[in-house]
């Protein structure tokens, strides 16, 4: 696995410094830089941590940066840290922090059904943190609909969604008029379906073609 860079990105060293070693995280507002370092040092060697603060009051905005020495360490932190941190690669420093905060909140408050099925409340500090977020109720089920602009291949799509445990079946169909792809995915539990949607909605397969993943009614009690 490797990380590609655009042709306009300049030298590899510049890209590595600016785009691949610094992550942006959402944190409880009481965190200090030492707390942030303590939570993320297990993933690699940290060059520095910083917390974004209100310029007037000096209070934390609940957002911070962690800069690692290697891209692989930043990638590991994003993949393995508690999902409550909503870790992403940080934008280059030439993008203002205000625009980054706006993009971050708009991208990461896309409403995903959450609760005990996802590991957000494993740490006490995230319980109150999560409850304060605005959420839109979404009907949850064990069945998902997958829509693609390009045709889907049964075996490949099955292998992709089978990365999430509990896949029961994958049924791929094709629209003969538009050549677009459509599939129905079903898992043994709603938790697996939620996680698959969380991971694979917007996933590029094949590269350049983003999958749309939504819940389908399956007749079960969504409150469960």
UniProtKB/TrEMBL annotation:
<dbReference type="InterPro" id="IPR034207">
    <property type="entry name" value="RBM45_RRM3"/>
</dbReference>
<dbReference type="InterPro" id="IPR034206">
    <property type="entry name" value="RBM45_RRM2"/>
</dbReference>
<keyword id="KW-0694">RNA-binding</keyword>
<dbReference type="InterPro" id="IPR012677">
    <property type="entry name" value="Nucleotide-bd_a/b_plait_sf"/>
</dbReference>
<dbReference type="InterPro" id="IPR052462">
    <property type="entry name" value="SLIRP/GR-RBP-like"/>
</dbReference>
<protein>
    <submittedName>
        <fullName>RBM45 protein</fullName>
    </submittedName>
</protein>
<dbReference type="GO" id="GO:0003723">
    <property type="term" value="F:RNA binding"/>
</dbReference>
<dbReference type="InterPro" id="IPR000504">
    <property type="entry name" value="RRM_dom"/>
</dbReference>
<dbReference type="Pfam" id="PF00076">
    <property type="entry name" value="RRM_1"/>
</dbReference>
<feature type="domain" description="RRM">
    <location>
        <begin position="21"/>
        <end position="95"/>
    </location>
</feature>
<dbReference type="InterPro" id="IPR035979">
    <property type="entry name" value="RBD_domain_sf"/>
</dbReference>
């Amino acid at each position: 696995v490797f990380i590609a860079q655009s042709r306009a990105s300049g030298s590899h060293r510049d890209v590595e410094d600016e785009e691949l070693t610094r992550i942006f995280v959402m944190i409880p507002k009481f965190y200090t830089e030492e707390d942030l370092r303590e939570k993320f040092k297990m993933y690699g060697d940290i060059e520095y941590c910083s917390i974004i603060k209100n310029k007037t009051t000096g209070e934390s905005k609940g957002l911070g940066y962690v800069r690692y020495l290697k891209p692989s360490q930043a990638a590991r932190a994003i993949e393995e840290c508690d999902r409550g941190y909503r870790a992403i690669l940080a934008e280059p420093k030439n993008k203002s922090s205000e625009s980054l905060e706006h993009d971050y909140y708009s991208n990461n408050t896309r409403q995903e059904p959450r609760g005990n099925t996802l590991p957000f409340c494993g740490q006490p500090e995230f319980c109150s943190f999560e409850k304060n977020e605005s959420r839109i109720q979404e009907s949850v089920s064990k069945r998902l609909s997958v829509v693609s602009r390009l045709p889907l291949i049964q075996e490949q799509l099955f292998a992709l969604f089978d990365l999430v445990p509990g896949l029961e079946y994958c049924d791929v169909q094709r629209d003969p008029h538009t050549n677009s792809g459509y599939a129905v995915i079903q898992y043994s539990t709603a938790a697996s379906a939620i996680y698959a949607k969380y991971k694979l909605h917007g996933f590029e397969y094949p590269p350049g073609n983003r999958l749309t993943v939504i819940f389908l009614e399956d007749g079960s009690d969504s409150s469960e």
